[in-house]
Amino acid sequence: MLNQSPSLDLMFQALADPTRRVMVERLSRGPAPVSELAKPLAMSLSAVVQHLQELQASGLVRSEKVGRVRTCRIDPAALRIAEEWIAARRAIWERRLDRLGEFLAAQPDEPNQGSKS
Amino acid sequence: MLNQSPSLDLMFQALADPTRRVMVERLSRGPAPVSELAKPLAMSLSAVVQHLQELQASGLVRSEKVGRVRTCRIDPAALRIAEEWIAARRAIWERRLDRLGEFLAAQPDEPNQGSKS
User: Fold this and answer.
1) Tens digits of residue pLDDT in B38-93
2) Average pLDDT by stretches of 10, chain A with 117 residues
3) How far does B32 lie from chain A, in Å, by closest CA?
4) CB–CB of B83 and A80 under 8 A?
5) Rg of the Cα trace of chain A?
6) DSSP state of B23
7) In chain A, which ranges are continuous DSSP H helix?
8) A27 to chain B: nearest residue by CA?
9) Which of A26, B32, B60, B97 could form a disulfide with B36 if both were Cys (CB 3.0 to 4.6 A apart)?
10) What is the DSSP letter of B101?
């Protein structure tokens, strides 16, 4: 039961690293070859490729090789799955607060028991 | 520069585990003592407490001990930070697609160069 969503595991794991978030951020502005993804990152190309592989395993990023150039792009549908998981939990919490507010507002204004009569 | 958001690291790391997501899911329905969080989970109480500590370190969950009972609650503001990071990246991508669509729509309908004249 706990393992129904292995892809959420991989997506959140992929997003838990600042380098990979920089790569997602870059790709949100449009597709890019691996060399361009690597440019702002202070690490070897092979380290960048490892991060890219983790992003691809999670489904957040796809890539395609044409000739000698591998171009990466984001998958917004995968981003949406991760976003909606969090949003749904927050919505449940907020509906609960709304119901609590309605319940309290519906209580008649009675004097406290125990107050002077 | 890459380490500006250590809390995002911890939040996404916390959400990358299915047990911890079950705990967040339960807490989105209202505060709960640790014993109740542990009930549906097939693991020792100390393993649950370790998961809870990771959720607390990330800021997604807070807890308070009154007498002998530790009650846990979700922090919806922290959930929102993680959600909004993803939503912002997706929005950048979608605005880019919109601009591309507008650009293409604004092109005059010219016959292809190279077509028969």
Assistant:
1) 999 999 999 999 999 999 999 999 999 999 999 999 999 999 999 999 999 999 98
2) 69 97 95 95 95 97 94 94 94 84 80 52
3) 13
4) no
5) 24
6) H
7) 6-15, 18-28, 34-38, 45-58, 76-105
8) B93
9) B32
10) H
CB contact under 8 A, B86 and A15: yes
Q: What is the chain B residue with the closest CA to A96?
A: B29
Q: How far is A117 from chain B (nearest CA, A)?
A: 35
Phi/psi of residue B31, nearest 5 degrees: -60, 155
Span A54-66, pLDDT tens digits: 999 999 999 999 9
What number of CA atoms fall less than 13 Å from residue B38's CA on the CB side?
A: 14
Q: Give me the residue label for tokens 């339960």.
A: B26
- A113 residue type, one letter: Q
CB contact under 8 A, B96 and A5: no
The model's pTM: 0.83
ipTM of the complex: 0.82
CB-closest option in B11, B13, B90 to A83: B90
Rounded CA Rg of chain B: 24
Kindly state the average pLDDT of the residues B96-109: 81
CA distances (Å), origin A83, targets A80, B32, B33, B83: 5, 25, 27, 5
